[in-house]
Structure prediction request, 229 residues.
Amino acid sequence: MEFHVLTLFPEFFDSPLSCGLIGRAIKAGHISVTVHPLRKYGLGRYRQVDDAPYGGGHGMVIRPEPIAAAFDDILSRHPGLWRIILTPQGRLLNQQIVRTLAERRPGLLLLAGRYEGFDERVRSLADEELSIGDYVLAGGEIATLVVIEAVARLVPGVVGNPESLREESFSNGLLEYPQYTRPREFRGQRVPDVLLSGDHEKIRRWRLEQAIKRTLERRPDLISNKTES
Ligand code: SAM
Prediction:
């Protein structure tokens, strides 16, 4: 799967794209990530991308023309990319949206904002606006990385054992069950006997019960959303 990022800070991506799961996925050719500097499409001698807000107010707003020029250029070379703007005003990202992006979109073009955000008319250039949470970051770079990592994990071949994706939190509308490894006892807390029993059916049932219990305790909204859908 192809990911393209449009940003004022291309250097931000050097380390996150070179290590861990994403770094390996790029090396193995399961995904590609191309970072495009927005400044390249800036206006005039100084490659200006922002300006003061009409009507007054603090901070600077990103102008629409550099973004339109960048989108036109990138899409002329990579047609069919799904255009996403990262903004705290967008739809709240969740695993269902991530799954749709991984399964239905051939590639993503992700726009990271800065300063006070974008001129309102930029919205008309995008297919979708996404937020990664109800808080405000200084820029959209971390948000684009969140989308890339969450989507890339679902691209075939990226996660070694696809079974692990089937059981993890949100995959079936539940939080994951508690996990244990060695030692058998840690500061008075013992690994539940059932996990040492070797009885796979019993373990499966225990894990499902625990997942339901944990979801009811911590995220009852997930269960009610599931019932409604
Ligand atoms: N003035 C904007 C507002 O109140 O909605 C916030 C601008 S924010 C300081 C700068 C940029 O960071 C945004 O354009 C967006 O790209 C990114 N950003 C900040 N918080 C975000 C979030 N929760 N999800 C996605 N992107 C976010």
Observations:
- The pocket of S-adenosylmethionine is lined by residues 86-89, 112-114, 116-118, 131-133, 135-140, 143 (CB under 6 Å).
